Amino acid sequence: MRKLLLSNDDGVHAPGLRALHDALSAHGRLRVVAPDRDKSGASNSLTLTRPLALTALDNGFYSVDGTPADCVYLGVNGVWDEKPDLVISGINHGGNLGDDVLYSGTVAAAMEGRNLGMAAIAVSLCGERYFETAGRVAATLVGAAESLSLPPRSLLNVNVPDVPWEDIQGVRVTRMGYRGPAAQPLRVKDPRGRERYWIAAVGDNADDGADTDFAAIEAGYVSITPLQTDLTRHAALDDVRNWLDALSNS
Q: What's the pLDDT tens digit per position in 79-90?
């Protein structure tokens, strides 16, 4: 039986994580290692300035006083004798569409698994209601994961419309869309009158073409986007070389 490591960024007590666990319970031996609190937006950060506490909870889950990437790192490396076969992160409360993936702790947990040699899937619900729908999507994909061959350092980013299962229109393989600039931070005062700032809402969609994850969700389809951890802009390599050659010859 396959060994599945589950994590998230909404915290070990989040209903999306419980829904993922319940949906995958028949698909392998599950281990859950997740942050002890909400770590949304933590991206790929690791905790390097202090030791981490791994705590067993009454429900069999494990909490970590760190980031999603910390959780997967501990779940894969050395805490247990057996390594997982597959890392599944989610179910996130809200979509991770377009360049949301740059900030997402949900995607980062899957990415950490991929970096450590595991196959990995990130699952997000574009809302906070129909976790059962996202759980069924996750179970379907995990059940077929052994037949999927991805290039090294690749993972799947899955977004699910927040609708009942019977209202899902199908599945689309998509590319990342892009958002415009985020709104200005919200200036507030704390109870002592000191000025503070809230990070504001994400920007509006700037690229939501028909083949994007944004468009798939808007049309009621599950969006599956293959992601890679190689951020090199290969198409720009020659431009940068030519630029440097021109500098050295000037």
A: 888 899 999 999
H or E segment to which residue 172 belongs = strand 170-173
| Per-residue confidence (pLDDT) for residue 29, from 0 to 100 | 95
Quote the pTM value.
0.92
- Surface-to-core class of residue 88, CB atoms within 10 Å of its CB (0-12 exposed, 13-18 middle, 19+ buried): buried
Q: Output the CA angle 141-143-144, nearest 5 degrees.
A: 70
Cα-based distances in Å from 129 to 38, 95, 154, 223:
18, 12, 29, 18
* 110 touches 122 (CB < 8 A): yes
Q: What is the distance between the alpha carbons of residues 250 and 246, in angstroms, rounded to a whole number?
A: 6
Specify whether the CB–CB gap between 128 and 168 falls below 8 A: no
Q: How many CB atoms lie within 10 A of CB 143?
A: 14
Q: Are strands 170-173 and 221-228 parallel, antiparallel or unpaired?
A: parallel
Going by C-alpha positions, the residue among 22, 21, 56 that lies closest to residue 36 is 56
CA 8, chain centre distance (Å) = 8
**Are 32 and 54 contacting, i.e. CB atoms less than 8 angstroms apart?**
no
pLDDT at 179: 86
Helices (H), the chain: 15-24, 68-76, 105-115, 131-143, 213-218, 237-249
CB atoms within 10 A of CB 54: 16
Phi first, then psi, for residue 38 (nearest 5°) are: -65, 125
| Contact assessment for residue 214 and residue 178, using Cβ atoms and an 8 Å cutoff | no
For 162-199, how does the pLDDT look when each residue is reduced to its tens digit (9 = 90+)? 999 999 999 999 999 988 887 888 899 999 999 999 88
